[in-house]
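pipeline stage [seq->struct] | target=Ig-like domain-containing protein | organism=Ameiurus melas | residues=216
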Amino acid sequence: MKLLPLHTLILLSVFLHSSSSSSCSDGDGRFEPLFVRAGENATIKCSISNPDQDGVYLNREKVTSTDVLYYFKDGTLTPEDSVKGRVETNKNFRDFSVFISNVSEQDGGVYWCKFNKLDVYTVSEKTYLIVQSGKKICSRESECNFFIYWIVIGVLSLIILVLAGVLVKLCCDRGQYTPKQHPSNGVYEVMRGNTSKALNNPAYESSQRCTRSALS
């Protein structure tokens, strides 16, 4: 069984737990994963509450965002070259679907629909199409969600462990800290030693006794 690449898992976990901002209405920024094996067909679903639309764009984002196709309400379908001859629609704006046949890994990415009524645009929910060259890693949506959530938990646990290690190191470094000993002033040490020697000198003590006797 072929597993997803690490960078794909990380991107998927981020996509599922983040929201993207949009200037268009009804764009909630959520992603739904869609796992498809290479050579199979994929269905991108886009629902909208108001079916009174002039047309709809199907957008895909990998590194940059591109228009995969545009469907006009009169039935005109304008696909890009990479999907020409491989896409169809159900022609129903309320529950719009795009069918992509014989998908390849190049078809993978984040898809969403952008409906337009004159100059007013409405964005649908987003679908993350993941195309695998081998066997599917899961056959049902519940299995895919379970797998994805474990990946997210693993990434978050790794981040927590790294932060905990940094905190432990900081605490250990703080516990081993000892203040620096400032060097003493050599001049004062010499003066202190000379004073002590003078007080212990017999000649000095004798002169002090003579002075006290003369005063008395």
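stage status: PASS
auto-comment: Strands lie at 31-37, 42-47, 55-61, 65-72, 77-79, 87-89, 95-100, 109-117, 120-132. The first strand starts at residue 31 and ends at 37.
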